[in-house]
């Protein structure tokens, strides 16, 4: 698996590269600013791009802009963005209307190599890897008269894991319950939130949840 890493802080960049190489990934290129991120991806055609959101030249959301451009022009490249801050709008903007092959992680989580490695593998496989803290904040955000108030604590747990991109089997493993139990919770969640449940892919399920949480 080939990965391009975009990060302007040299120590953080080298740490990410070391974790990836130890896990058996090939780091095809590194970049320290957003324009170079675009150049590296176009030159090496990696399976996954990992990039910080705040990068030169403007040190605002240049990395996110580059990631969005890559998702638009090169949909086969999985994209993971790293953020130092808990910004739910970044997650919404990054996912957009396509939940396949996308990840959003807080930088502090990357200190755990297993988290980064798992995210890279999931995104490379076309799945979603959204930071649990971001999703938890969205699920727990105060709303006036929201149907979320009608969800049980267990349904909230299931909703959060759905939004992170986990399948029913994955949710069952996380919560140590049976798959049929998860399916009952999912049915209840969609019913209470007024979301249409169909036999569509897990990506559409993630999008449905995020669209609701965005509202």
TrEMBL record:
SMART domains: HTH_LUXR, REC. The modification 4-aspartylphosphate is found at residue 52. PROSITE patterns: HTH_LUXR_2, RESPONSE_REGULATORY. InterPro entries: CheY-like_superfamily, NreC/VraR/RcsB-like_REC, Sig_transdc_resp-reg_C-effctor, Sig_transdc_resp-reg_receiver, Tscrpt_reg_LuxR_C, WalR-like. Residues 144-215 form the HTH luxR-type domain. Keywords: DNA-binding, Phosphoprotein, Transcription, Transcription regulation. The keyword Iron does not apply. Residues 2-122 form the Response regulatory domain. Pfam families: GerE, Response_reg. GO terms for biological process: phosphorelay signal transduction system; regulation of DNA-templated transcription. GO terms for molecular function: DNA binding. PANTHER family: TRANSCRIPTIONAL REGULATORY PROTEIN NARL-RELATED (PTHR43214:SF24), TWO-COMPONENT RESPONSE REGULATOR (PTHR43214). This is Response regulator transcription factor.
């Amino acid at each position: 698996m080939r990965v391009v890493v975009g990060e302007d802080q040299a120590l953080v960049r080298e740490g990410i590269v070391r974790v990836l190489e130890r896990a058996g990934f090939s780091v095809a290129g590194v970049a320290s600013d957003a324009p170079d991120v675009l150049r590296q991806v176009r030159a090496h055609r990696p399976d996954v791009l990992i990039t910080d959101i705040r990068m030169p030249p403007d040190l605002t959301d240049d990395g996110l802009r580059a990631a969005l451009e890559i998702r638009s022009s090169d949909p086969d490249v999985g994209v993971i963005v790293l953020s130092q801050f808990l910004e739910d709008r970044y997650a919404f903007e990054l996912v957009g209307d396509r939940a396949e092959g996308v990840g959003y992680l807080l930088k502090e989580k990357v200190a755990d190599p297993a988290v980064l490695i798992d995210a890279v593998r999931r995104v490379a496989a076309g799945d979603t890897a959204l930071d649990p803290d971001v999703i938890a904040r969205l699920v727990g955000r105060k709303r006036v008269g929201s149907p979320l108030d009608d969800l049980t604590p267990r349904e909230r747990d299931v909703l959060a894991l759905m939004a992170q991109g986990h399948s029913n089997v994955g949710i069952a493993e996380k919560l140590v319950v049976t798959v049929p139990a998860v399916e009952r919770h999912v049915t209840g969640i969609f019913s209470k939130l007024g979301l249409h449940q169909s036999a569509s892919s897990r990506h559409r399920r993630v999008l449905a949840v995020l669209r609701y949480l965005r509202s």
